[in-house]
Write a structure and sequence with these properties.
By secondary structure, the protein is mainly β. 3% of the residues lie in helices and 32% in strands. It is globular. The mean pLDDT is 95.
Length: 119
């Protein structure tokens, strides 16, 4: 997996993988796995083994202060960078599983996510 457009190389990039069940996407206990890797610019890379060929979705955030939490302001808006597989749109709230889903084939797969930051 490749994560681009990080604002800095400070902190960690957190990658969360979700299974094909749309009800588990972004649910507190819905993840299949979570990785925390050092933030690197211009591109942070992470590698993980998938359970097998299937449909998945990924959510990513830049834990710049390395507190292991996705920080938000008083209004609930993100104060750290974030992104989703397929660069799923977030203009009107969280993306749907359908907009973030990707199909993993047997063998190596490369997923690219661009980090976004609220202004």
């Amino acid at each position: 997996m490749q994560v681009s457009q990080l604002s800095s190389a400070v902190g960690k990039v957190v990658v969360t993988l979700y299974p094909s069940n749309p009800r588990r996407f972004l649910a507190p206990r819905g993840k299949l796995l979570r990785l925390r890797v050092k933030a690197v610019t211009p591109m942070t890379r992470a590698c993980f083994n998938l359970p097998g060929p299937d449909v998945y979705a990924v959510a990513v955030y830049h834990d710049a202060n390395a507190n292991e939490d996705f920080d938000r302001n008083r209004l609930g808006m993100p104060t750290e960078g974030f992104g989703f597989s397929n660069d799923a749109p977030t203009q009107f709230g969280l993306p749907s599983f359908e907009s973030a889903r990707f199909v993993a084939q047997p063998g190596d797969n490369t997923l690219r996510v661009g980090m976004r930051y609220q202004r």
